[in-house]
Write a structure and sequence with these properties.
single chain; mainly alpha; two-stranded antiparallel ribbon; 9 helices
Length: about 230
């Protein structure tokens, strides 16, 4: 898969040769940029981790409670007597919780967008050099999206792991370890898949505008900008 072209121009201004950069090379460049700017990468990942941890916690907690209600038994009767079941299934509490989830995702999106815009600003000279050497707009976009995808995958995985750990600890002390046996594996897999899709979609959405801005940067303006 080709990811960019370098286009030397002849005296007439026509393209004399096109050199395609392998996709594997673009991946290497993106990975190197992440390691060089580790602090910025950690900032992007932190927002993803917090948002996905909260989302995974809410989804799995809700699924676990529904599984308990469906299964019935002494545990559900005990929770009903203590009033805990009514609080957990309250419509108002559920609405407030989902508002908080939406707010967390929005904050994460803004954080990713801001961090990526700062990354573009810090790399004016680098982007200008690449474009002067013949890098197409598609390569610039691809590099920024690859960097964000790496961060999104790692942040999503960590966030989901934290969310699951919180749900497990809470259910262990509230319902007992046997409660997890009532949650179908297929349901849990669907919820985790949804979390992954949300995490990756969130990172791509937050990186699209910064990547587009970097790609549309004029080489001359970028080269003469001092940061």
């Amino acid at each position: 898969m080709a990811s960019s072209m370098i286009e030397p121009l002849g005296a007439s201004g026509a393209i004399q040769k096109q050199i395609r950069l392998p996709f594997s090379k673009a991946v290497q460049i993106a990975w190197r940029n992440i390691r060089v700017r580790l602090a910025r990468s950690l900032l992007v990942m932190s927002g993803i981790v917090l948002a996905l941890a909260f989302l995974a916690y809410i989804l799995c907690s809700d699924a676990l409670v529904r599984s308990l209600i469906t299964a019935g038994g002494p545990l559900v009767e005990s929770l009903q007597k203590e009033g805990k079941l009514a609080r957990m299934t309250s419509t108002d509490v559920s609405a407030q919780t989902w508002w908080l989830v939406g707010l967390a995702l929005l904050v994460s999106f803004v954080g990713i967008l801001n961090a990526m815009l700062m990354s573009v600003t810090e790399r004016f000279s680098e982007i200008g050099t690449m474009k002067c050497l013949g890098a197409l707009d598609s390569l610039i976009v691809e590099l920024f999206l690859l960097e964000t995808l790496f961060q999104g995958f790692v942040g999503t995985a960590i966030g989901i792991a934290i969310g699951l750990a919180l749900v497990f600890l809470e259910s262990l002390f509230t319902y007992g370890a046997e409660a997890w046996t009532l949650l179908p594996g297929a349901t849990l897999a669907k919820l985790l898949g949804l979390c992954v899709l949300v995490g990756i979609g969130l990172t791509i959405a937050g990186a699209l505008y910064p990547a587009w801005r970097a790609a549309k940067m004029q080489p001359v303006d970028a080269m003469r900008t001092e940061i």
